[in-house]
Design a protein that fits this description.
148 residues; alpha/beta; five-stranded parallel beta sheet; globular; binds D-ribose
């Protein structure tokens, strides 16, 4: 499975750890930057990562900034992106299973390296429960997106 990953300067250190971690598990990683700890603007990298998912090149994505919030806000401006900002593994798993989230966001200034890798494992290891009310509700999200 191909995973896109992006960050701003505030997520740069953990992005490198996440890349190594998921590559070692056999995922193919597409890195859309940033590529240094120099100050930059998170919406640029959120947008680049979303394009990789919306084009079909990547199945899922991971975005890291200081809090994860700016990245998730930017990502959720894209039709078809369902980004979840998580700092616990229960939410990271459930957002795949119930919301069919296709983008995990978190903050390097919020979670440590150990928890970051566990969030990623919980998210990538879970599958959307493609039935019943989950399907109805995810379709409702798309309807809201279409009409607003
Ligand atoms: C950068 O200082 C910081 O604002 C950014 O990484 C992020 O936390 C925004 O949501």
């Amino acid at each position: 499975m191909k995973i896109v990953i992006g960050c701003d300067h505030a997520g740069f250190a953990i992005k490198n750890l996440v890349k190594e971690h998921i590559a070692a598990k056999g995922y193919e990683v597409v890195d859309v930057g940033t590529n240094s700890a120099d100050s930059c603007h998170y919406p640029l990298f959120a947008h680049a990562a979303c394009e990789k998912i919306l084009s079909g090149e990547c199945a899922l994505g991971i975005l890291i900034c200081g809090t994860g919030i700016g990245m998730s806000m930017a990502a959720n401006k894209h039709k078809g992106i369902r980004a979840a900002c998580c700092s616990d593994t229960f939410s990271a798993r459930l957002t795949r299973e119930h919301n069919d989230a296709n983008m995990l966001c978190f903050g390097e200034r919020v979670v440590g390296a150990g928890l970051a890798l566990e969030l990623v494992d919980a998210f990538l290891g879970a599958e959307y429960l493609n039935n019943g009310n989950h399907v109805t509700r995810v379709a409702m999200l798309a309807e809201i997106e279409k009409n607003n």
